Amino acid sequence: GSVSPDNGADHVCHSPCMVLPRLTPLRGAAGLVVGGVVGSVLLRKPEENDFAGAPLKRKIQRFQSLVDRGQDPQSLRKRSEMVAALKSGEEFDVLIVGAGCTGAGAALDAATRGLKTACVERGDFANETSSRSSKLIWGGFKYLQVAFAELLDRKTLTAPVSSLQKFISEFLMVYECCQERSWLAGQQPHLVEYVPQAVPFKTLVQWPPYFNHPFYSILPILAYPAFVFYDLLAGFNAPPAYVMSARETKKNFPQLEAPLYSAVYCEAMHNDARTGTAIALTAAMKGATIANYVEMTGFVHGGPDGATATGVTCVDKLTGEQFVVKAKAIVLATGPFLDSVRRMEDPGADKAVAAAAGCHIVLPGYFTPGGMGFCELRNSRGATMYFLPWLGNTVVGSTDKKCDATSSPHVTEDEIQYLVNEAASCLSSDIRLRRSDVISAWQGWRPLYRDPNAPPDAPVSRHHAIGHDEHTGVSFICGGKWSTYRAMAEELIDKVVAFKGAPLAHAKPCVSKEIKLLGGDGFHSLLHVQLVQAYNVSTEVAKHLCHAYGTAAFHVCELAQPSLSGARLQRTVSRAGVPTDGGGHMGRRISPSYPYIEAEVLYACRHELAVSVKDMLTTRMRLAFLNSEAAKQAIPRVAALMAEELGWASAEKARQIKVAQEYIGEFGGPVADKRGATLKAATFTDLHDIFLSVDKANAGYLDEKQLGEAAAKLGFPFRSDEHRRIKFKEADRSENGKLSEAEFIEWWNGRNSEKSRLALHKTVMLDAASEVAIDKSNASAK
Prior knowledge:
Elements: H1 25-42, H2 63-68, H3 79-87, E1 92-97, H4 101-111, E2 117-121, E3 136-137, H5 141-151, H6 155-158, H7 160-187, E4 192-201, H8 219-233, E5 242-245, H9 246-252, E6 261-270, H10 272-285, E7 289-292, E8 294-302, E9 308-316, E10 322-332, H11 338-345, E11 356-363, E12 373-376, E13 385-390, E14 393-397, E15 401-402, H12 413-425, E16 440-446, E17 465-468, E18 475-478, H13 485-500, H14 527-535, H15 539-549, H16 553-558, H17 598-607, H18 613-620, H19 623-626, H20 628-646, H21 650-664, H22 684-694, E19 701-702, H23 704-713, H24 721-731, E20 739-740, H25 741-748, H26 751-764, H27 768-771
Parallel strand pairs: 1-2, 1-10, 2-7, 4-12, 10-18
Antiparallel strand pairs: 3-6, 4-6, 5-6, 8-9, 9-10, 11-14, 11-15, 11-16, 12-13, 13-14, 17-18, 19-20
Helix pairs in contact: 4-10, 4-13, 5-7, 14-15, 17-20, 18-20, 18-21, 20-21, 22-23, 22-25
């Protein structure tokens, strides 16, 4: 039996329990200390440190606190001061030509290593390739899948070593992309955020298979574990992958046709031009001398043999003044325009860039409801289509066409119509896509590197390449992607320092992982609420400002004017002083349907080196990329604000308006320009609407004359009455002189247009396997 506690006997525990040591004051104190230390480590709130591990500073409450932290936009040197420093004749350690994400990133990396750094850009910051991306900061899931497909190919049996090397190279590239994506989203949350992307499946077995590999016929079964592995590569820093049932998929994407289920994963997205501008401005605040609208026109040589490049000749495109910038190291970061710069030195230089043009169209936001994107991995024609939510609208893309790069964002009508048709094939009949739904379209360039010494038919690489000219001492970088811009910059400066040796021996180690880009210091998820409360801006405007400027949004709001004027400025308030009229927010909008305000124009002119109306509506405020017609309407007001701020004469203001109108006019829009177009195929909805508009009597058919009217409205008028008669007879299969709607649609999208569509598909749409880099040997080209 049990022993009574008062009989003096010891209590014996016969159960397998642990005997605890006797608690004493000393042991209790030690336990509290140890427990406190362990608890502080295990239970520390994630927000106490930033992604780089540094303790977070207190949250921003007002603009003055941003000034105290050293991120004061007012401290940035003016453009005139930057240009004066370039012209001073003083030698820089490093001169970088090009201020896209790669060039500006290299300038930031070099400046924070203690190198005296200069950077020149012929246009605005990030105004070419870097501002015309898909808006994704992607980890490369598609590349990972194709890498596995290549490893599972029968060629692995005959060449196992090379196949394994290719797989490892591709795998490491994806791993680096995932890690850098985690850093961008974690360290720069004011600019980059995760967005869920759904991949819907209609069957558990797909044939023809995804990625044109039999193994991926069961991708619908493998998708979720594959996405979990993808999350693992990113250190599980992104929101986790999950599965949506058919009901949930249909609820979130009513525009999809009968999905079986969806696998959902997260990629990061950003406003690419704003991120690029933030990189350039941060580099300037860290000491780099960086100037937009300064174009390199040639090299200056010197050294013992007279062949070493010791500087470059430049022209200030605002004044026409020419000058020389001297530097110990010259780096070309000109993206798809690298060959044109190299040929300034050697007109016969072989091509090192195999540029590929990518076209995107922009649709209204209701095509991606709830802020969630989706991807059709293989539509009816084998193409991969992305629907991405971006700044309230939907970006759809993309094409991939090999051709030489130009500065124009112009997209041919055939490519726009092709994307509209392909996108329509991914949607159910409940949401009909029309050509007029396209509110903007643009073309960007992928700077794919190609080894000049490789055979003409050798594949290009999606990896970046860094090289040096042993004769002139000039370095270059080509290729790469937004996801890895920081890692590319680090590797580039490492190699330039090693290549130059003693002249750059004072360079310190890279610290770019610890840097927050301008506006990141003090940013937090409720910053927009503080702006609403402190400045009475609308919630929509506040959220936009936070993710365009970060904590620098306080400074933008300091410049804002009331949206009401005159007698309307007298608001109705309650006895407690609370406004009751629901209006009168601070911040006059540039366009009524978008959250851009006039104060942004003033801020960009004063503190962001903005000098052009064109740039203000394309890269600083993304209105042209979101709605080209709205951007055109905003040109006069933006020009007036900039003219007053920058002191333009009337002639300069008129010139700026003309340049902006011409450039923004190159973006696609809702009105189709069929001049020179060859792709006649249109969506069912467009043909249905045309049919109804021509059949005014509601007869249910078209006669020969009405067919001519329909063809003209679609942009392809008949050459003559005889041509119209022949085509009508061809379309009228019932031979009753009446063309039904079904006959009209079948004929218009029939054999003749199909021939053009197939030719265009072969030109602009690469399958997933073709899109992925195959030649990995170029990554360390010299």
